[in-house]
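Note to self: keep these together.
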Amino acid sequence: MKKRKKTRIPKQKKVLLKNRIKEVLKNIESSKAAGQEVKLLAVTKTHPKEVIQKTFDCGIKFFGENKVQEAEKKYIDRPKGLELHLIGALQTNKINKALKIFDVIQSVDSLKLAKNINKRAFAISKKQRIFCQINIGKDPQKIGFTVDEFEYHVEEIINLSSIKLEGIMTILPNNIDDNKKNQLFTKTKKITEKTSKMYSMPLEVSMGMSGDYEAAIEKGSTMVRVGSKLYGPRK
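Structure:
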């Protein structure tokens, strides 16, 4: 039986990826306020497994995937020190697999899901790190807590024994103007700061993607999720 050959990234594409990473990191630096820390989460959704190692070799440690099944195939032998985040919707029947694969689940969008994750994590003696996803723009096409739901349930989520709340994540509605984006980024940051202060716990704010990550940083984001600016259009 013949061994399957590994797909190799052509040298030209490696150079292109390296330059794109440098450009995004430069933009992050120029958008930050003094003392502001911002993590770059490289989103490899639909892109080949081979980009993971190359991106990691460029110094990027944080990666994001939208689907449990895709992550399971691509990250089975990931580099040591790589931190993997789930940023897509999590179905109940995929929780067990997600707990084995992901360091952080950013897309916790309900108290019910948080409790289910907690129950399954307890069963395998894991403290699962999570973010709560807030639907800050009230977009019917997006998942997430409403602001009122989040504020009502957050204390109960914090008190769950086998999960650790580490941040808030949001995805803005499509086709809104820059002014509205800035308003929603600011609102998300304020909710994060309010929660952090109320419960005396540090919280990340994950907001901003390829098209608006600089604006999100200017409004206080501490983690940006960038895919197409690094890897080009989805495959």
